[in-house]
Amino acid sequence: MKVCLLYISKERSDDKPYFDTASIIKDLGLKHLFVSAAKRLIYENGAVKSVEKEDTYLMETLRNVMMVPLHSEEEIIYRQEILKDFIKNEDMARELYSICTDVIRKWNELGRGGREKLKQSNQAMRLTADIRILHLFSDSLGKIKTILKDPSLKIESGGLAGFRDDFMNAFPDEKEELLRDVLGDISFYTDGSDDEDEGREKIVRPRIVMESGLEDGLKFSSLKLEEVSSKGEKFYKPGSAKYKLRELVNSRTPDSFSAVNDARIGEQSQMLEYGIVSFLVEEMKRMMEEFQSFFDRLRFQTAFYLAAVQLKAQMERVSGEWCFPEVCDRRDLEFIQLRELVMALERHVDVVGNSCSIMNKDLLIVTGANQGGKSTFLRSIGIAQVMMQSGLMVMAGKYRAGIFPRLFVHFTRREDSEMNSGRLDEELGRMNRIVEQIGDGSMILLNESFATTTEREGSVIAYDIIRALGEAGVRILTVTHLLSFAKRVYEESVKDGGLSVEFLSAERKDDGRRTFRMIRHAPELTSFGLDLYEEIVGGI
Fold it and tell me: Is the entire prediction scored with pTM above 0.70?
């Protein structure tokens, strides 16, 4: 049975992850986001009482899903609507995830991951394991059905409602009842080993009724299974006086006999039991075949939504403002009070938000004072873009952007001992690998790129590369201290035929104070480094 909670009418995406996901995660600081989403906040009297340890499966699932972007507005809305349902029904998300996690753990204990070992064991052990797995499946599917039937659920999304309807059709009451009946009938085969009562007050015995005709020579014909059932009898320790007495009575009964006193009959009885139970188990396994991978898929997909619900709680812990993004034209970018989510999660405080409306532009250049929040601003857009393209909410009052399945980051890196060439060579090498992947729907975030050489040389390189990328239709957002580059682009932008450019600058008050807000402003011709010098000297 299909789950289809992440994608419309399919279980997995056919699309590739972002190019260089490691750089996106590192430069945008997404690892901390994954960890935060994997932690459940426990509240008491409206305040956070404790924080549970992160669930590594939630963390890895969120990472894997977020690194494969959605490609259409329809897909994004589909996932957003399901997430809204899980936010309203958080307990359902937790229960479904918990049931699937428990099933998979117990299934593995019963030999799911080691079927080869079971093949080498005796047939009875394999059959017993299969019966236990069927019990596990039947009970767990019954629990899921009970959850989905809850009349208090508020399900409005087509995706979640469709999953519920498909599940009810795949596991109707008649099928559940049949499974329980048959499993109850063959419970004798586990010899009461499923009974958790150590005292075992009863023993389970089989009742097998077969119908057959007789041919010449007293040969059986048209053999037919009429009934298989289990009956409970009071348990007596084998070898005790009461046990022997009961076996004696059974042996004297006209329509029955005891297999205890005849080894040949006992062996044939066991063979008959094994054959009949094997037949019934195989039939039930075929009936349950569509659920073989169901629990894995449901666990993975509910894990994403549970992580998203917990991430929402983390957002609300530091700021009450979040929203579901809207899709617009690729040349537009508009947001209100967009915050850098990772910084807020790390510091457990609300951070300064930025608002802007960039319409019909190819290039965004951010300049201005050092320590003014430019890189933080750029990361806030990158984080929001990745979250939007995975169907998640963002930490803003409003966020509208185009869809860019090819998202690239090029942040300046510190030189380390493993670098065999200069920092500029390393930067150019990374840029070359990005250029080879450029295509339709490309966005690149450049943070202080090409600042590892002289201002003059860096400006020439930046201009040539960014100009070429812009002409190729790439959406470019760059933070730079290359003032010659910024000035040249600004002068060309006022002329006809140049790239359509938006210029922002980190706001700086007359007294040198930074507000960490970006404002529309022509490129600054200084980064106000003396402010930092005076601040440092004044503090000595």
Answer: yes
